[in-house]
Design a protein that fits this description.
By secondary structure, this protein is of the alpha+beta class. The protein contains 4 helices and 6 strands.
């Protein structure tokens, strides 16, 4: 039974999220469990019959095994999970909607957090300077 699919995340969100690519075998979307398969390219090191078996699975279970027409499958990490570009689950769109809908809260948090981090860094820098001074005067 096909899964209900969400609207796609925006290109801007995907451009920020997708930072890697692989052509070395299959790669899973850890948001939905789909298996993504790069096209069989000359640079791939498939075992004999391995790619053909995956092609067969993609025909039998097209919602589970996604065969890509490119020889590289692009992916990124969000919330500690691997997401595949163009995965039909589009589950990262939920994050995009959350981030955008709450952008003023997020911006306020970033501003306050950055200010605190800067103050902490200045305090640590002063501490390091005092330790360096103490060490150099004790020699």
């Amino acid at each position: 039974m096909p899964r209900k699919e969400l609207s796609k995340p925006s290109e801007e969100f995907l451009d920020a999220l997708i930072t890697s690519g692989t052509s070395a075998g299959t790669i899973d979307c850890e948001f939905c469990g789909r298996v993504h398969i790069p096209d069989k390219s000359p640079g791939m090191d498939w075992e004999p019959g391995e790619f053909e078996e995956l092609e067969r699975k993609s025909k039998q279970e097209p919602d589970k095994y996604i065969l890509h027409s490119e020889d590289t499958v692009h992916w990124g990490i969000l919330d500690g999970r691997q997401y595949i570009a163009d995965c039909p689950c589009n589950l990262v769109a939920k994050y995009e909607r959350l981030f955008w809908k709450n952008r003023s809260v997020i911006e306020s948090y970033f501003r306050k957090r950055a200010k605190r981090e800067l103050e902490d860094a200045k305090r640590e820098s002063r501490l390091a300077e005092s330790v360096t001074t103490a060490v150099s005067t004790s020699r």
